[in-house]
Amino acid sequence: MTGQERSEEKSECMSLSPMMEAVPAPPESERVCVFGTGDLGRSLGLRLLQVGYGVVFGSRRPHSNSSLIPHGAQVLGHAAAAQSAHLIFIAVQREHYDFLVPLANQLKGKVLVDLSNNLRKNQYPEANAEYLQSLVPGAEVVKGFNTLSAWSLQNGPSDANRQVYICGESVEAKQAVIAVAIKLGFSALDRGFLSVARELEDFPLQLFPQWRLPLRIAIGLSAAFFFYLLIRDIIYAYVTQSKDISFRIMVSLANKVCPIVSLIMLSLCYLPGVLASFLQLYRGTKYRRFPDWLDRWMLCRKQLGLLALGFAFLHVLYTLIIPIRYYVRFKATERTVSMIRENRTTEFDTTTAWRGDSYLSLGILGFGLYVLLGITSLPSVSNALSWREFSFIQSKLGHLTLLLCTAHTYLYGWNRFLSSSTYKWYTPPGYMLCLVLPSVVLLLKLLLITPCVDRTITRIRQGWERGADQRNPKDSQPLIP
Ligand code: NAP
Fold first, then answer.
1. Torsion over CA of 310, 313, 317 and 319, rounded to 10 degrees?
2. Crossing angle (nearest 10°) for helices 398-413 and 430-448
3. How far is the C-alpha of 151 from the C-alpha of 257, rounded, in Å?
4. Per-residue pLDDT tens for 29-39?
5. Nearest to residue 9, comparing CAs of 96, 73, 76?
6. If you measure from the C-alpha of residue 42 to the centroid of ligand 1, how many angstroms do you get, rounded to a whole number?
């Protein structure tokens, strides 16, 4: 250490927080250093103190910042703080990292934890952690803790953010960071070398990544069917009969759009699985990757299903309020009064009663199973199920739900499929359009569960490959007897 450094350290040590004299300094192994007394630095420092670490802050202005830091911590200049601990958390924005360059000597051999995040993806040519490593090549840089917020650190780990991700080149350095994470109550996941840092830095920038595609589909379908039904139901009545029934937009139209979108999205939830099975049948093997689009589609099935459930739920609510609607009450009263005036009665129609009850009953059963699917997709519930139970509910009961909801819609159409008045301006009603996809999915599924196809697909999933018997006679034994 040069004389200048010694005198700098002396003057820095004199600028300790008043707390320093009260708290005896713990050994270096139990001490950690935090550079930066900002939001994250202070929250992290507080948590570290609470679990028993000695905390030394490194700050540009140790004098003026001493009142900000948590009680029990010390605050020193960067150089002196760096020498007090082996592990140093860098809670400073990346833009200011150049202040570390003159500290290269003090940081040699130390473990530097890069906590930084960026404002957007690819903001810099290299990851912040790699940049830090290039500035201080003598130190061991570990990326980590950046997916936590200052707020969540203060509140302690909760189930939702119990995990911290780390990466770095040195195994020892990563172990030191993991030890701190565990002591703080987190579980640490080692993601590999420092080259993974960019991926970790992108984590906090993601906004519901798996919901994006399902949400776009839901919004697109809702908008498309809303305008389609607006033209068919409202504008058609206005143009052909000069009737203004625009009030129907609020409930009637909404109550048509919701079940249509729900049924299509439920079908979209099961279609990729069916397509994947046919692809495996066609290829005769499961050892070939699915196309990227199919992979992405399969990964968002849970979100598709949950959104479909949301639309089904809205459909139920809209249906339940039908009897209290002014329009419905008015029409019912008007009809009764006119029947009394004209001294007219109607016969009870058993077929209509059967049709109405079946339609409602299938809808209720379908919705019940829908809710079951939604509940079992929650991690806290699905974690309590075995894989077999989970796949039974999601696959078998899921297809049954699709069947019940499709039958519910067919009953809604009943004999109107054949009536020419249904096709206003030669267009089919929305419920007919929405039946296409679920019918296709159910038909394909029916094909897949026929014994001969099912047997082949089961063998493929057990590892059997078409043509492998000729290539290698040893493989001709079935994998599962
Ligand atoms: P902040 O509140 O702005 O604090 C940053 C600290 O850096 C300042 O308090 C200051 O401490 C120090 N600093 C500022 N300019 C400096 C310079 N030119 N040279 C040296 N040090 C300087 O930021 P923060 O919210 O704590 O975030 C710190 C880092 O953690 C950022 O990289 C951020 O991306 C990351 N992060 C933050 C959160 C969060 O919830 N806040 C979550 C995850 C990751 P002194 O005055 O003591 O020197």
1. 120
2. 140
3. 41
4. 689 999 999 99
5. 76
6. 10
